[in-house]
Structure formats: structure tokens, C-alpha cells
Amino acid sequence: MVAITEIGLRELFRHLGQWLTNLRRAGANRKKESTDALRSVIVASRETTVYVRHLNETGLQDHQEEARLSTIWTKLSFRLSDIGLTKLAKRCDIKGRYWSNPAQFDHTFLEKADVGLEKIEKLARQILVETED
To answer: What would the DSSP string read from start to end of 13-53?
Structure first.
């Protein structure tokens, strides 16, 4: 049988306290990661809306801008997947794939995938509100 000494108990409680502090810190970091990623979705949605407005008004495609949007949406899908927001991550992935080559998806698929910019931003806002509570 092992005897627990006063020093051993103090050491145990010290380690337990450090573990709890680290756990709280990890929770705060996770919440910040989620908040940052969700805010980035809203920003990406608005940047994409501006480009779509430009496209509709001028009729001029900008392949560099489409490549940038593809990269933004794809990176967002990875970030969201990493933090477990898979539903939103899938939508961002489709947006990234779409902007890499808009002709690869038909209108019916995009409607079923529910990847409208307003819908994506609304979902991000809803999740953001839930994480702030």
C-alpha cells in the first residue's frame, strides 16, 4: 500500500489546478477559433457578393478574383472542418469548388446544395450567436 503524504497531496492538487486552467484556456481558444472562422465566412460572403454585383453590372469576369474567392472559400472549409462545423464547411467547400470553375455545377445542384451567399451568411450568424452564449 502506498502512503499519500501531505507533499504528495499538494503536488496532486497543483497538477489538478494546472490541468483545469489549461482546460479552460483550451475552451476559450476553441471559442475564439470558432468566432474568427465564422466572422471570416461573413466577410467572404460579402466579398463574393461585391464581385457578383460587379459581374452582373459589367458582364466582365475577373479570373484572378475568382481564383482568390476559390482560395478563400476553400481555406474556410478547412478551418470550419477542423473545428467541427461540418455543415457549413461543406457549403464553403462547394463555394470554393464553384469559384475555381463556375461551369462545373448546374443550377439544380447549387439549389439543392443550398449554397446561396445569403443562406451561408445566415447560417454563420446563427452559429456565431450560439457560440457567444
So the answer is: HHHHHHHHHHHHHHHHHHHHHHHHHHHHHHHHHHHHHHHHH
